Here is the input.
Amino acid sequence: MANAVLLKPPDVDGPPARKRVKVKLKRQNLAGWLFVGPVIFGVLFFQLLPVAASLVVSLTNWTGLNSPKFLGLGNYKELFTADDTFWPSLKNTAIFTVVVVVLTIFIGLGLAVLCNQKIKGIGFFRTLYYSPAVTNVVAIGFVWFWLYNPDSGLFNSTLKTIGIHGPAWLSDTKTALIAVMIVALWQGVGYPMVILLAGLQSIDQSLIEAATVDGASAWRRFWAVVFPLLTPSLFFLTITQFITSFQVFGIIYVMTSGGPNNATSVFIFQIYEAAFGHGRLGYASAMGWVLFVIVGVVTAIQWKMEKRWVHYDN
Amino acid sequence: MTTEAIRVFNRAPRHIPRRVVLIVVLLFFAVVFAMPLLWMISASLKPENEVLQSPPTFFPSEFQWGNYSQAGHGLLPFFLNSCKLAALNVGFLLLFASLAGYGFARLNFAFKNLAFALLLSTAMIPGIVYLVPQYMLFRQMGWIDTHYPLWVPNVLTPVFGTFLLRQAFRGVPMELEEAAKLDGASTFGTFWRIMLPQVKPALAAVGALTFMGSWNDLFGPLIFLNSTRLQTMPIALALFKGEYFTQTNLMMAAATLTILPPLLLFLLAQKYFVQGITMSGLKG
Here is the structure.
């Protein structure tokens, strides 16, 4: 666009000016690329090159130490047909993702509405609600691990005082995934809350006042006026929360290492094990690409559905 | 009646009960969110035998502040590693992201749109896809078991930071830049002396989020480091679990110390955090 403006003078001034402009353009290109060059180099060298390489490696049996043999789609075939941890871990990942995405957004919306009330000291509550989101997953993993202790943990000790024998939480295959999801929710609702609070605060107050004058109840005002205006933020959150939840690793690694009996084993944990536990870099790369494709397809579907429920005012 | 008067009139009869319900709900969630952290702090100050007592008591019978000096002593080298990495990450990421952000916002050069599209496209790639090949790359480069993989790739791929700073530079009035150019300032001089000070809030937002990412990184140190002496605080905490601390009270003191720096930064720079997070929700 601006290049067109710069190209104008030659038509007016003739050849000498054209030369000058050419030199100027060259210098401009050089300056521009000096500014963005480091980052473009970084993206190419540290991200796009490794991604392309991983596609090639996924077709081999490379361990990093052997001379790799070409397997074709062998790794993918093994993953889908012979690996008995793949489908269970995919199922765990799916359950974790659906529950965490839906509940973080739902609870985050509730908290955002709460924090948008005009009341003294509301800033204190906002800060408090967001604070778990900045804590370190290893540290809070330990804290929750201790709270979940079947005998001396806070939860079961408290339950005992009212005569209930609590579950074994992390060491029971039936409750382990639930226990981990509770921690993920505790830490995960802060982000949607902040995004939705910003969404709420950007809503034109006169719209809400107009609805009030028309006699709409608070409940009706929320669903008919506020909620449609929040759908762009909600759409953004369904995309980002899905991508991050589907890649859950830290909390699983710290609290259960995938156990007991693979009850909390998620997809990334399997990739980590394959690559750095068993040294199967080719196989792990194939798993990485399967994950990439799943995330890509689901995200594409979400974009397709956008028109059906997301409301853009302008 | 004016709109305002109608609003007040509509609300008035339910005013007090509604407020009470609101405060009760707010306090309920406050307890839910604070409870695990408060128990962590309470356990970190208890004598050893009291931590596993059943039923548990919230307040320690005596405050053992010594738990902190004991845990802190063991953690110190790892605290310094984490500080070093956070400083390198924040400093260099801000430099490269603001250079690129300014370039994309205000300079014209060949293939600019292509370069920007390339940058944004990588935001969609799940991190795990390039982690395995990155590991192989760093092994070729002799970077395994050094600190380089934990900051060099991060600071050279600041996709979100570049995007946020580009938005900020676009908001600076053109006149400022033109005046500097007329005074004979070079492109870099204009960027460094005139433009950079104008986007301080965006720099603070990117810096705060980068600090968090660096401090709380788990995957990086776990995969790229082998030597204990190079480890960061969170990994050291995980290692301590088995090796040094069999005592829950010391573990909780160590956990508190690990959580403290990001929490303090969040409390001090809350405004910038919220701004940074909110900006991440904006569409280009």
The two ends of chain A are 25 Å apart (CA to CA). Confidence is low (pLDDT under 50) at residues 1-14 of chain A. Residues 74-309 of chain A form a domain with the MetI-like fold fold (CATH 1.10.3720.10).
